[in-house]
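for ur thesis appendix - Pilus assembly protein, PilO. copy paste whatever u need, i formatted it the way the template wanted (i think)
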Amino acid sequence: MVKLTKSTRKPLFGKTKTTKTLPLTAIKPAKKSFDAKAFADSFKSLDQNNYGSWPTPVKATVLAFIVGLVAFLTWFLPITSKREEIASAEAEQQTLLDQYREKESKARHLKEYEDQVAKMQGDFRELLNQLPKETRISDLVDGINMAGMNSNIRFQDIKVEPEVSQELFIEQPIRIAAVGNYHEFGHFLSGLAKLPRIITLHDFEVTNPQPSLDHLPELNLVLNTKTYRSKEISEDTTAGKDAKQEASDAK
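the 3d part is after this line
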């Protein structure tokens, strides 16, 4: 800014004339706008053998690019591999946590589980003790006949089939063929359930050879039942010896 001083002149004819000066503001040159084309052209005229002669904007751009590239390579590549390792470790951690929870739950309920197993084994031994030591088929057949007579059914056949040896007991299948109506068969099955021997009912077949609407039809019943007896001590001992012999032969 330029200032002009105040000056006083004395005129030739009597009056003094004062002249005031006003400040003048210096005119600033207009800012030069960024020319993208000129900036791009400056890269074409670079002297690769003389980096110092490059324009300052070009130097700054190249430096920023190099710094960014180095930062990207030093950060992204190691971080990517670490992320994969972290993801794998997290998956393994989740698997281990699930296994821990499962084992911890089993350990927490172990005493209860052992008590249940002991109770089941006791109940099973009690049931085995209730099984007769001998089959006594004649007594059982007499009981089946008595249940049939009380139910008014007519037997066609009562067949005692060969025994089937299981691990802890022996099954005795009995096949029953009889004739009667629905109600009589119901009473007969109820009578079987009241026998002192354990009898289980399995496959059965009911046929109606002469359908009739005037009265209750007579049906043919074929019923497969099983009764049980416990193994003798001698049989258990023999079985144990056989098992030991098989184990020694396998070795």
